[in-house]
């Protein structure tokens, strides 16, 4: 099952002229330090931690920083740092025990009119999203934002601890794809300083489709 995926990925990377290098341990350590300090600095204020205690927050940040540095080695450090902050926010939401519905009554209307959201997570994430999305073109920016909406809604569904009705065979896959952030992960690989979206929409779309699986 992995062979077609790997073959497709290699073909896509070859088409885009992707090359890689072997990074030294020293460079990895410098990148880890840089991304860690940037991410930690963002979450120093209690308002950005959204009620998460410091010890738990530290564990979240350490996990996400390692993921970013080792999974996104080609990204510029400023992009890597902003993504690290973004993914830390997703872990905070996934870990949150607060009920969502009470703060979502006007979400859609507020979104359409550009009004401030009532949910604390959206308030914090909306403050950060412009910093992240400035690194991407319009297609990838829209994809990341849309994937963020899906992730939030998936977490909202999971609050009910509902495993799906009997014989609802599509439900588990539906929920997994909704809050799996596959679209975001795929789109985030293509910052505009390295990729011209207008030339690579087919390749970018293919990567997003594969990452979603």
TrEMBL record:
Lineage top rank: taxon: Eukaryota
Molecular function GO terms recorded: carbon-oxygen lyase activity, acting on phosphates
Signal peptide per UniProt: none
Gene3D superfamilies named in the record: Farnesyl Diphosphate Synthase
Swiss-Prot/TrEMBL keywords: Lyase
Matches recorded under Pfam families: TRI5
Cross-referenced InterPro entries: Isoprenoid_synthase_dom_sf, Trichodiene_synth
This protein's record includes keyword Lipid metabolism: no
Family assignment from sequence similarity: Belongs to the trichodiene synthase family.
Name used for this protein in its record: Trichodiene synthase
